[in-house]
Each structure stands twice: as structure tokens, then as C-alpha cells.
Amino acid sequence: MSKQKVCLVVGAGDATGGAVAKRFAREGFSVCVTRRTLDKLQPLLRDIQQTGGVAHGFASDARKEDEVIALIDHIESNIGPIEVLVFNIGANSPNSVLSETARRYTKMWEMACLAGFLNGREVAKRMVARTNESDQHTHGVSQKGTVIFTGATASLRGSANFAGFSGGKMALRGLAQSMARELGPMGIHVAHTIIDGAIDTEFIRTLFPDHYALKDQGGILNPDHIADAYWMLHQQPRDAWTHELDLRPYMEKF
């Protein structure tokens, strides 16, 4: 098995997830990226590989326990040890609470939180096992992994028409806090980011042109700059770990 360190990005979309994958690939990581369909990953895989990086793409439903376990097992057995997990699934689908259905609400929670739990648990098991192995030789706890959960404005407050999304994102924040308290002493850095503001994407450009016009004024988030912050989180020494990082354009209201 290759000993090259792995960064797994679950939910490697065209903005934040893709930028994070490229950033870690530039730092020498073998990057594993997932989406529901493999075809949508091809442009990202090409970009990374054409610049000399190593990237592997997987079609995976992050809500399905058996698929998550099989994916993590495959990566650990055939590619390398997962040193960084970035959970980046959005699950944003606004709707009035008066017309929201149990099916839609449940799906958003599954995508935003259950999937985070499944992926976080499986990766943490491997990280902790490696930490325990290392401790037998060093007689102390060494830093052995980073888990970053991507949150949103809805992680902190529930706006009108976002009952499902805010419920899932707030639950993900609680999961991150619990994991950080349990796994930190074992050498696992668990961080939660709050991305508070519009991100420079085709979605924002097409549907919210007035907001997108703020780009030249630094009014929307650049995915590459978000990725830089994620790299910084992984680089932190364990005596000064950040658990929660709030990223917002300077003009975004608190």
C-alpha cells in the first residue's frame, strides 16, 4: 500500500470542495474526492492531474453506511492513510415550514448531519488506531489527523424558510463539538467552519446577479481563500487548535 498521505473531500463540488482538494493536492496529498455521480468529478480530477497532483474520484452516497464503510476501507487499503477529512456536503433547499414535507426534511438532515457522522466516525476510527500505534513508541499523544466539517450561516441561526437546512447544520455543529472534545486528547483535530456569505459560484452569478456584482469589492467569498483557511487549520499545532472558524466577506452582516 502507498504510504502517501490522503485528504478525503466528501462533497467536492465546483466551489469550496474542489478548491480544498486542489489546495491539498498542491501540498503533496493524494486527494480522494466524492460526489453522488462520478461524471461531475471529471473536470476537477483533470485539473489536479494536469498540474502534477494525484487525485482519485468516487461516486458515493454519503448517507449510506455501507457505502461509506466500503469507501473508507478501499482508500485506506489501496491508496493510503487518511490524514485529513473535509466534510463539505451542502444540503441547502429552502422551503416554507408550512409546506415542508417529512421526506424533504429528513433528506436534508441525512445529507447535512447523518452523512457527517458516518464519514467522521469511520475516518476517526482509523486515525485513532494510528495514534495508539504511534503512542506505544513515543510515550505521548501525537497529532495524527484533521477532520473539518463545513457549516453555514444556518449553523448558528435559523432563517425563515430554512427549517430543514438549519436543523441539519445545527446538528452537524453539535456533532463537531462532541467529536472535538472526545478525539482532541487522542491527537485528532476536529474543526467546524461557518461559511457566512455567498460564495463565488455559477449558482450565485446566474441567480443572484446583484449580489455577484459585489465580487469586485470583495463582497463574496473566493473558494480558493476558503481553501487556504482549511489548509491553515490542518497546519495548526495542537497547543493552539482552532475549533470553530467563521469566514465571511467584510461587508457581510453579523
What does this structure look like?
It contains 8 helices and 7 strands. It is α/β, with parallel strands linked by helices. It has one domain: Rossmann fold. It has a 7-stranded parallel β-sheet with strand order 3-2-1-4-5-6-7, with helices on both faces. Helix 1 (16-26) links the parallel strand 1 and strand 2. Helix 3 runs parallel beside helix 4. The longest helix is centred in the middle third of the chain and has 37 residues, at 102-138. The chain is globular, with a radius of gyration of 18 Å. The model has no long low-confidence stretch (mean pLDDT 93).
Helices, strands, pairings?
Elements lengths: L5 E5 L5 H11 L3 E6 L6 H9 L3 E6 L5 H14 L3 E6 L14 H37 L6 E8 L10 H21 L4 E8 L6 H6 L1 H4 L10 H13 L8 E4 L7
Parallel strand pairs: 1-2, 1-4, 2-3, 4-5, 5-6, 6-7
In the CATH scheme, the class would be Alpha Beta
Number of helices: 8
* Number of separate domains: 1
Gyration radius over CA: 18 Å
**The CATH H-level homologous superfamily:** NAD(P)-binding Rossmann-like Domain
Which runs of at least 5 residues are low in confidence (pLDDT < 50)?
none
Largest sheet: 7 strands, parallel
Distance between the termini: 47 Å
Secondary-structure arrangement, i.e. CATH architecture: 3-Layer(aba) Sandwich
Assembly state of the chains shown: single chain
Main-sheet strand order equals 3-2-1-4-5-6-7
Helix-and-strand structural type: alpha/beta
Helix content: 40-55%
Indicate the CATH topology: Rossmann fold
Helix and strand pattern: EHEHEHEHEHEHHHE
